[in-house]
Amino acid sequence: YARYSKFVVRGVLRNGDLLNSANVICSLSFDRDEEYFAAAGVSKKVKIFEFQSLMNGMVDIHYPVIEMSSRSKLSCVCWNSYIKNYLASTDYDGVVQ
């Protein structure tokens, strides 16, 4: 059973283009040191964000540090917990990158 019984909103990620409302995030993963997190989904992009800038809540729209494109919608993203700069993603076509 879970240690916590409810969620508390600490920050809001308004992700994506203002003209494109179909921008669902399917997966989220933190890097080893929890400085960055990767978000991926139907936008066909993996977007890396700084975690502390989201937690500060000073701005309404957060821009990614970097974006990586894929040919298909992304289903999962996972950061290597031992090697900080290794990130894997899978897409709806079954490709692992």
TrEMBL record:
InterPro entries: SPA1/2/3/4, WD40/YVTN_repeat-like_dom_sf, WD40_repeat_dom_sf
Single GO BP term: photomorphogenesis
Protein name per the record: Uncharacterized protein
Natural source organism: Nymphaea colorata (pocket water lily)
